[in-house]
């Protein structure tokens, strides 16, 4: 399998590899959408960003993390410890993403609302950056044992 963005080359089952690979491609689209909004302003492509954001967050929680948890249980329980340690931090970005999405649903398109969305979008971008690093750490530890840095 070719390397996905971020250097992922899976060494697990083909199904898990495909799930993670596709999810990381979705992450790249999320980053691209976020960059487009940052350069053009929130009204430019907010709906496309929101769609990708919700899909990415959902796939993470309901598919990728479940696969990683099952893999960790089958092969190395220290992966469960790492998952349990990182999950609360990942959940913070999930909560922020869902709040941002809901705010977009209820806010009118006034200048004051646009300023609030820009502020929330900036904060969400920072949380997503942290989330991506945690996700990569989790994937590397659980799914790519050769790339492991000992977890303490």
Question: Overview of this structure, please?
Answer:
By secondary structure, this protein is mostly helical. It has a single domain (14-145), classed as Regulator of RNA polymerase sigma(70) subunit, domain 4 (Four Helix Bundle (Hemerythrin (Met), subunit A), Up-down Bundle). 79% of the residues lie in helices and 0% in strands. It has helices at residues 14-40, 46-75, 77-106, 111-143. Helix 1 packs antiparallel against helix 4 (111-143) and helix 2 packs parallel to helix 4. The protein starts with 13 loop residues before the first helix and ends in a 9-residue tail after the last helix. Mean pLDDT is 82; it is low at 1-10.
Secondary-structure map with pairings?
Layout: H1 14-40, H2 46-75, H3 77-106, H4 111-143
Globally, the shape reads elongated
- By helix and strand content, what is the structural category? mainly alpha
Query: Helix and strand string, N-terminal first?
Result: HHHH
* Rg over C-alpha atoms, rounded to the nearest angstrom: 17 Å
Low-pLDDT ranges = 1-10
Q: What is the number of domains?
A: 1
Identify the quaternary structure here: single chain
**CATH class categorisation:** Mainly Alpha
The overall strand count is 0
CA(first)-CA(last) distance: 30 Å
CATH topology: Four Helix Bundle (Hemerythrin (Met), subunit A)
Describe, in short, the structure shown.
The protein is an all-alpha fold. The protein has one domain (14-145): Regulator of RNA polymerase sigma(70) subunit, domain 4 (Four Helix Bundle (Hemerythrin (Met), subunit A)), CATH 1.20.120.
């Amino acid at each position: 399998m070719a390397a996905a963005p971020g250097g992922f080359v899976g060494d697990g089952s083909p199904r898990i590899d495909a799930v993670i690979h596709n999810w990381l491609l979705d992450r790249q689209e999320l980053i691209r959408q976020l960059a487009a909004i940052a350069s053009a302003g929130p009204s430019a492509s907010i709906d496309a960003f929101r769609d990708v954001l919700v899909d990415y967050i959902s796939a993470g929680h309901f598919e990728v993390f479940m696969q990683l948890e099952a893999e960790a249980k089958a092969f190395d329980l220290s992966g469960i410890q790492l998952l349990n340690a990182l999950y609360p931090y990942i959940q913070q970005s999930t909560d922020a993403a869902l709040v941002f999405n809901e705010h977009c649903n209820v806010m009118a398109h006034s200048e004051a609302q646009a300023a609030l969305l820009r502020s929330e979008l900036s904060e969400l971008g920072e949380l997503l950056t942290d989330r991506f690093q945690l996700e990569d750490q989790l994937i590397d530890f659980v799914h790519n044992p050769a790339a492991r840095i000992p977890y303490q």
